[in-house]
Amino acid sequence: MNRGIYEAASGMLVQETHLDVITNNLANVDTPGYKRRISATSDFSALMDRIEKVSEDGETKITTVLPADMPFKGREVIGGLSLAAIFSEDVMDTFPGVLKTTESPLDIAIDGPGFFAVADENDNTFYTRDGSFEIDSNGNVVNSEGLMLQGEGGQISIGNASTVEVNQTGQIIANGQVVGRVAVFNFANPTYMRHVSRNLLSPTQESGEAEQRENVRIWSGALEMSNVEVVTEMTRMIEAQRIYEGASKALMTHDEMTSRLVTAFSRG
């Protein structure tokens, strides 16, 4: 009886997480360079069918094994929670967004895969598809948050130049002189990068390390918009809400049955 309550409650918790992810996607529908996130679920038994093993190199690794092969030391497992859902992970959808023409010379977009690199004053580097840049009071090329755009040789500065443009090879030209080239980086598995703000990303162990991409085409005077599709997200939201409502009704039904069972046995 309690197993049914656990399964229904876990389903509700998972849908709450789905709704959080969907809501965040919708909130960033107009954020340049934002990549929507997709949440995934797994079942409880899949999580429990993993054991830790120490390999020959001394590192602890997670290994998936069959339930029959797990070392239960003579104890027999009765039943299971294979129907209980748990939140597994959320990944980034790297599908490119639509390009929007702005005519601003420092609005740039990447043709194909890759990310711009921006750094703060503490040399913390983040990655983004948002190519909306401007010049700060020190003549540095920065994004809307004041993070400095990174070129092939570090941060890019144009000084007191009166004119600036970016060509298709990523060269930044100030007053007719090349002052730097925009660096574009890629990752082995960019879907596993984590959002640290609206459109800033940081690499993870699963995404791999940043590798500079060569022969990149840069579009100047254009911005890549968010790849969030409102209709798709609204459909996912309605689906999650209905599943949540179904799990909620199942929870109340199991709770009522448990109450009746307790009442019946107490009378006996």
Report on this model:
There is one protein chain. The chain has 268 residues and is α+β, with helices and mostly antiparallel strands. The chain has two domains: 2-95 and 233-267, no CATH class; 99-224, no CATH class. 26% of the residues lie in helices and 30% in strands. Strands 7, 8, 11, 12, 16 and 19 form a six-stranded antiparallel sheet that branches. Helix 1 (2-27) runs antiparallel to helix 3 (230-267).
Strand content: 25-35%
Helix run count: 3
- Uncertain regions: pLDDT < 50 for 5+ in a row? 45-54, 60-68, 70-78
Largest beta sheet, briefly? 6 strands, antiparallel
Number of structural domains: 2
**Estimated radius of gyration:** 26 Å
- Which word captures the global form? elongated
SSE succession: HEHEEEEEEEEEEEEEEEEEEEEH
Distance between the termini: 19 Å
Fraction in helix: 25-40%
Instruction: Tell how many strands the DSSP assignment holds.
Output: 21
> Kindly state the mean pLDDT as a whole number?
83
Summarize, please.
This protein is of the alpha+beta class. The chain is built from three helices and 21 strands. The protein folds into two domains: 129 residues, no CATH class; 126 residues, no CATH class.
Strand and helix map with partners:
Elements: H1 2-27, E1 37-43, H2 44-48, E2 50-54, E3 60-64, E4 85-92, E5 99-101, E6 108-111, E7 115-119, E8 125-128, E9 133-135, E10 141-143, E11 148-151, E12 154-155, E13 164-166, E14 171-174, E15 177-181, E16 184-186, E17 194-195, E18 201-202, E19 211-212, E20 217-220, E21 222-224, H3 230-267
Antiparallel strand pairs: 1-4, 2-3, 5-21, 6-20, 7-8, 7-11, 7-16, 9-10, 11-12, 13-14, 14-15, 16-19, 17-18
Helix pairs in contact: 1-3
